[in-house]
Amino acid sequence: MANDKQELIDQFHKNSVELVEINLNEWKTQLYVDIRIWMLEKPAEPGNVKPSHKGICLSVELLPRLIRGLKKAQVRIETKSETRPESGQNGAQSSQERRTG
Question: 34-47, pLDDT tens digit by residue?
Fold first, then answer.
């Protein structure tokens, strides 16, 4: 990749007006993974999209950590769907509770 280049890795529709793109970007010889929401403009035609501010851009060194976190989230979701406890009865702390103590 040359400087300031972007390579589309994958994309999928989040809903009827938003598209998620995963890109590999090179900027000043550094590689980054950019996961961004793109807004489909009206009329929705191929190429008629614009990037939103919603997304995350990480150095490729952090990609394994992101994948590990996503896998943990997937396991947690699968566990919750199997047990389906009543609201507030599972004893897990919310992210807000962990931050505030």
Answer: 999 999 877 656 66
pTM, two decimals, is 0.69
How would you classify the pairing of strands 5-13 and 30-40? Answer: unpaired
| Residue position matching structure tokens 């939103």 | 52
Q: Which CATH number fits domain 5-60: 2.40.30, 1.20.1740, 2.30.31, 1.10.287?
A: 2.30.31
Q: Where are the domains of the chain?
A: 5-60
Are the C-beta atoms of 51 and 35 separated by less than 8 Å? Answer: no
- Which of 80, 77, 82 has its CA nearest to residue 90? 80
